[in-house]
Design brief:
The chain contains 3 helices and 5 strands. The chain is an alpha+beta fold. The termini are far apart.
Length: 107
């Protein structure tokens, strides 16, 4: 798994968990790593992908920002790609016992 793009949050460790800059395990880390990997794979401009993470008592909310030309790729026809991304991230989060939500932000 690539640690590219995780510079604002941390790096993917050998065990697949995401650690913050202090070396602490991040809630929903593998879900974030899955989201980052999928988004960068789909994007025409992978360096423009930014994933913001917000933790709350109800779970983890991810806000994904992409280049304006890549937003259509992330959403897909009738939102099918976006729904598939949300499903995969939800599954990755549930393996850690974390509820996740993915929002696609149009800048």
């Amino acid at each position: 798994m690539s640690d590219a793009g995780l510079d604002d949050m941390g790096n993917v460790g050998a065990d697949g968990d995401v650690d913050d800059m202090a070396g602490n395990r991040v809630e929903g880390g593998s879900a974030r790593a899955v989201l980052d990997y999928i988004a960068r794979s789909l994007a025409g401009e992978p360096d423009a992908v930014v994933v913001e993470t917000e933790e709350s008592s109800r779970g983890v909310r991810f806000r994904i920002h992409v280049a304006p030309g890549d937003m259509g790729r992330m959403i897909g026809r009738r939102g099918r790609v976006a729904q598939a991304i949300r499903t995969l991230v939800r599954v990755a989060g549930s393996r850690e016992g974390v509820d996740t939500n993915v929002d696609f932000v149009d800048d």
